[in-house]
C-alpha cells in the first residue's frame, strides 16, 4: 500500500501543483451538486489516477475536484465507492488515505440513507454522532502500517463533537430540520426487509446505509477528524413499509441537497486548524 500511496500522491501533486487541500469532502448518492459551489482549480478523473478505483455507478461522476469553498481549500470526491460494487475495503478507503497524504486536516462525508427512527422523515437531514458497523469486512484487516496509524485505533469518538455542535447550531439558525443519530452500515446493494429494519432499529440505529463507515474507520486510524451527514431518502418503518426505487432515492437526495449545502458551506467557514 505504501508504494501505491506514494505513486498516486505524487501523480496528483504533479497535476495540481502547489495547491494543498485543507478539507476532504466525500459526496454521496445524489449529492454531487455541491461541486457547483466550489471555485474549481483542478479536476481529475478517477480513471486517470494511478491505483485509484473507478466508480461503477452511472449516477456517480468519478472525479476529484480541487478548489475553494467558503474560503477553504478543498478536495471533493464527486462519486464515492461502495463495497457492493465489488471493491475490497482497502480500495474503497484508498482515496481517504490519499487525501490525507495530500494535506487535509479534516474529512467531511455525506450520504443518502434510510430512516429507522420513527421521529425522522424522508427529506430530513441527520448528522451522524456514532455508528454500528454490520459490514462483513474491515479496511484495517491485514498487516498494519504503523506510519499510517496504530494497530488498534480508538473509536470512542469517531465523529468530531465540535463539528457536530457547530453544524446543529447552523441548522437551527437556518430553520433546517436536522437530527443527530446513529448510522448503521450494511453491505447492500439490496434494501432491507421488514424484519431487518425492525432489527436495525432495535439495536439502536436511527438510519441505515451502505457506505461511510469504512472511510470513517480509516480516517480515525489516521487521526483525521470527521464530520458526517445523511440525507434521509426513504423510511424503513416496518408497519408502514413501502417499496422504493433508486430513482425516488436520488430525487429525494437531490431535493434535500440545498439544505445540506447550506450546513456544509457555513460549517467550513467555522473550521480552524
TrEMBL record:
EC number: 2.4.2.1
Protein source organism: Daejeonella lutea
Protein's pathway: Purine metabolism; purine nucleoside salvage
Keyword Endoplasmic reticulum found: no
Function: The purine nucleoside phosphorylases catalyze the phosphorolytic breakdown of the N-glycosidic bond in the beta-(deoxy)ribonucleoside molecules, with the formation of the corresponding free purine bases and pentose-1-phosphate.
UniProt similarity note: Belongs to the PNP/MTAP phosphorylase family.
Protein name as catalogued: Purine nucleoside phosphorylase
Every Nucleoside phosphorylase domain range: 23-268
InterPro entries found in the cross-reference section: Nucleoside_phosphorylase_d, Nucleoside_phosphorylase_sf, Pur_Nuc_Pase_Ino/Guo-sp, Purine_phosphorylase
Alphabetical keyword list: Glycosyltransferase, Phosphoprotein, Transferase
GO biological process terms, semicolon-separated: nucleoside metabolic process
A single MF term (Gene Ontology): purine-nucleoside phosphorylase activity
GO cellular component, one term: cytoplasm
Listed SUPFAM superfamilies: Purine and uridine phosphorylases
Amino acid at each position: 500500500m505504501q508504494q501505491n500511496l506514494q505513486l498516486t500522491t505524487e501523480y496528483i501533486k504533479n497535476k495540481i501543483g502547489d495547491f494543498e487541500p485543507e478539507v476532504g469532502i466525500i459526496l454521496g448518492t445524489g449529492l454531487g451538486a455541491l461541486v457547483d459551489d466550489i471555485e474549481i482549480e483542478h479536476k481529475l478523473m478517477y480513471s486517470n489516477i494511478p491505483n485509484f478505483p473507478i466508480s461503477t455507478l452511472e449516477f456517480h461522476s468519478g472525479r476529484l475536484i480541487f478548489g475553494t469553498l467558503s474560503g477553504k481549500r478543498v478536495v471533493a470526491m464527486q462519486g464515492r465507492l461502495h463495497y457492493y460494487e465489488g471493491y475490497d475495503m482497502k480500495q474503497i478507503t484508498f482515496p481517504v488515505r490519499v487525501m490525507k497524504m495530500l494535506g487535509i486536516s479534516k474529512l467531511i462525508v455525506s450520504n443518502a440513507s434510510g430512516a429507522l427512527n420513527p421521529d425522522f422523515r424522508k427529506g430530513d437531514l441527520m448528522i451522524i454522532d456514532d455508528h454500528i458497523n454490520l459490514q462483513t469486512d474491515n479496511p484495517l484487516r491485514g498487516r498494519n502500517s504503523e506510519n499510517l496509524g496504530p494497530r488498534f485505533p480508538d473509536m470512542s469518538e469517531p465523529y468530531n463533537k465540535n463539528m457536530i455542535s457547530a453544524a446543529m447550531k447552523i441548522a437551527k439558525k437556518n430553520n433546517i430540520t436536522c437530527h443527530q443519530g446513529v448510522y448503521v452500515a450494511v453491505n447492500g446493494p439490496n434494501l432491507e426487509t421488514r424484519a431487518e429494519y425492525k432489527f436495525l432499529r432495535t439495536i439502536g440505529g436511527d438510519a441505515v446505509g451502505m457506505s461511510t463507515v469504512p472511510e470513517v474507520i480509516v480516517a480515525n486510524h489516521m487521526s483525521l477528524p470527521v464530520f458526517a451527514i445523511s440525507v434521509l431518502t426513504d423510511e424503513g418503518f416496518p408497519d408502514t413499509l413501502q417499496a422504493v426505487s433508486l430513482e425516488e432515492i436520488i430525487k429525494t437526495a437531490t431535493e434535500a441537497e440545498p439544505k445540506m449545502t447550506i450546513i456544509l458551506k457555513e460549517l467550513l467557514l467555522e473550521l480552524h486548524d
